[in-house]
Amino acid sequence: MGGSAGGNIAYHVGLSAAEQVDNLLPLKIKGLILHQPFFGGAERTESELRSIDAPGFPPCVSHLMWELSLPIGVDSDHEYCNPMVGSCSNDFEKIKRLRWRVFVAGCHGDQLIDHQIKVVKMMEEAELHVVTRFLEGGCHALELFDHSKAKELYGALKDFMLSSF
Q1: Among 4, 47, 51, 76, the one annotated catalytic
Q2: For this structure, is 146 an active site residue?
Q3: Is residue 71 part of a domain?
Q4: pLDDT digit string (tens) for 147-161?
Q5: Domain that residue 112 falls in
Q6: Any idea what the CATH number is for the domain that residue 9 is in?
Q7: What pLDDT score does 47 carry?
Q8: Of the N and C termini of the chain, which has fewer Cβ atoms inside 10 Å?
């Protein structure tokens, strides 16, 4: 499980864990939880363009974060940032075979939503079992500012985890 940058990390750790599942025993992983995963790309999306003047977290901030985080000399179409580049089919095949479930949450007021939706579509095309929770409006890290939304998220996470048994 991870939120924001932690959601991106959880995604990549999940792909690695699927490769090493036998080495992780007795640990049994049943799925991944990606809450507003911090994905990006070199090309600006519609949601990023709508958020140009957003207070607190405009696209220039996320692009700077990627510039400071990625290996020197690469752009944000690097696999760490943009899951749409490269080949995930083999990784997804392992997740599918393991019957893991994936929960992806976000909100349409978040500049990252278009990237999140693209990744969900890619997972669905690979026939992974994906559960989504995309709220209208809102912003990145909404649950930190609105406790009622945090409670709703906790309920959705509880339902997802209990349905994985």
Answers
A1: 4
A2: no
A3: no
A4: 999 999 999 999 999
A5: 2-39+85-162
A6: 3.40.50.1820
A7: 97
A8: C
Q: Mark whether 16 is an active-site residue.
A: no
Which residues of the chain, if any, have pLDDT below 50?
none
Active-site residue flag, 87: no
Rounded to 10 degrees, what is the CA torsion of 16, 159, 133, 9?
Answer: -20
- With respect to residue 12, please indicate whether it lies within any of the assigned structural domains: yes
Catalytic residue selected from 35, 78, 115, 140: 140
Q: Which of 51, 91, 110, 114 is catalytic?
A: 110
The answer as to whether 106 is a domain residue is yes
Q: Which residue has the tokens 């700077």?
A: 64
pLDDT at 89: 66
Task: Give the tokens for residue 31.
Answer: 């799925």
DSSP states of 84-125 as a string? TSS--HHHHHHHHHHT-EEEEEEETTSTTHHHHHHHHHHHHH
